[in-house]
Design brief:
The protein has 99 residues and is mostly beta strands. It is 10% helix and 44% strand. The strands form two sheets. Strands 1-2-3-4 form a four-stranded antiparallel β-sheet, with helices on one face. A three-stranded antiparallel β-sheet has the order 5-6-7, with no helix packed on it. A hairpin with a 6-residue loop joins strand 5 and strand 6.
Length: 99
């Protein structure tokens, strides 16, 4: 276990399916958690990590997020308004790979 990024609040509305309450970084994978559900993203499945600017109706102003693209065409979005220390988390992920 290398790093953990937890949600700023534990309350997530039921229709917000793309929000996660916790992201754990391990040597070979990222584990995303929401209530009792987990999603594991292994590093060999990742093709790109794209930074993105996100507009929100519920958060004042704009904030950053990251899109994790996988080989099967699926994408997972991590939002900075939801996860605390998201930039540090992504920095730790990138430090695991060679330049």
């Amino acid at each position: 276990h290398i790093f953990i990024s937890k949600s700023k609040s534990k309350l997530i509305l039921p229709w917000e399916f793309d929000l996660w309450t916790q992201a754990d970084l391990f040597e070979n994978a990222i584990v995303l958690k929401r209530y009792k559900k987990e999603k594991i993203i292994f590093f060999y499945e990742l093709t790109a990590i794209e930074p993105m600017l996100i507009n929100s109706l519920f958060t004042k102003g704009k904030y950053f997020g990251y899109k994790l693209n996988s080989k099967d065409g699926n994408a997972t979005i991590l939002k900075g308004a939801n996860l605390h220390d998201l930039d540090i988390f992504i920095g730790e992920v990138c430090s695991l790979f060679q330049q």
